[in-house]
Amino acid sequence: VDVFVAASLDNGGRCVLDNDARINGGDAATGTNCVIDNNDPQTNGQGVVTVNLTHTSTTETDTIYAWVGENGETFDQQDVRGEGNIQLTWGPTPTGLSLPDNLNHTFGTNASVKAQLTGAGGANVSLGNQNIRFVVRRGTTTVLSQTITTTSDGSATLVYLGPNDPTTGDDQAIVDNVTAFWDRDRDNQDDGTNEFDDSGTVTWDEAGPPVTTASLSQSEVSTLIGTFTSISITVRDGNNQPVVGALVSFQSTSGQSTVASTNGAGVAGFGYTVALDGTADLIDARVDRNGDGDLSDPGDLNFGAVADLTHYWVETGPELTGSVQFDLIATNGGANTIDVVQVGTSNYYRLSYDANDQFNVNGGGTESLDQFESALEGLSLPDLDGNGGTRLDTNPYSNVTSVTSVFALST
Length: 411
Description:
The chain is built from one helix and 29 strands. By secondary structure, the protein is an all-beta fold. The strands form six sheets. Strands 16, 18, 19, 21, 22, 23, 24, 25, 26, 27, 28 and 29 form a twelve-stranded mixed sheet that branches. It has a five-stranded mixed sheet with strand order 8-14-13-10-11, with no helix packed on it. Strands 2-1-5-6 form a four-stranded antiparallel sheet, with no helix packed on it. β26 and β27 form a beta hairpin. The longest helix is centred in the last third of the chain and has 9 residues, at about 370-375.
């Protein structure tokens, strides 16, 4: 039986070998390439020929041909007898297995737990017909052990029925621990790290409308225009567990909008920048809990149901002349900068200072730079309370030189 791996067939139906493939450690064909000869493998007593196939790291689909004929005959698809072929897709080798961290279900319903083969960087690996062994434990009791075969996308889904509601009252949640591994050798035994264990939980609780909470957060309260900042949202359910796969729509008064899905920790986020003037940018979000595009389902949160967040975009401050009053937004002692808004205006600036400037705190004598920064660190910012509250006055005195700026802090 002559066997070869074809990248294609030419116009005459003759084979063109795939240079990425290997049969039995040689090239992509047995014996003399695409010719019946005495070096081709022979069938055993059951009429079976077995060959070993390998491939380079190239991802592609090949056709593997096996055929019989007269000794010395060359493969020609027009004339060949007894030909069989199959297509085989070569892809990345899995390096891991991923389960959801937690799933929430009502007593007495079915839970679907999906295990996904993954590769480099956590990317999904499409590899079908692989055994995934699931084990579900409830406390010290093993509820089930079951093998599920992966579909072509490299995933296997275990579906099982949860416990009945223990009483008609308000019962404690029941938590199942679910583990899974890639049973590569199909022996139903977990052989350790080579079979990529992962685990998660399924929480069973009372039926009722889902409760969703969501809170916005930011990596910093103010950012220089033209650079990027990160905004995120954390979505949790009534059991304070992360809601995974919720669709979150973000929008801001600066015109930014995007949609992102929550990850295994119930967190979704985006990065953005503005390129024009400094501004106070109000950010809002809405949550489509089950990701179906319909925001009227129980547990969904529309705009207004999530507390807004304000991010301040500042531009590099101008050269300071005369006396100007500012409210304080944020400070960075390491960089010697203060983010401020000019009182009574919409001018948002990042002011810079150094040891050559003069400093004053609460009307006292001249302070050192360290004393000034220590006073700044003691403030709770942003503090936008206007002219009568905490503020920074620049150059409040007339007897300063043109090369020296005065920063007077009033708390």
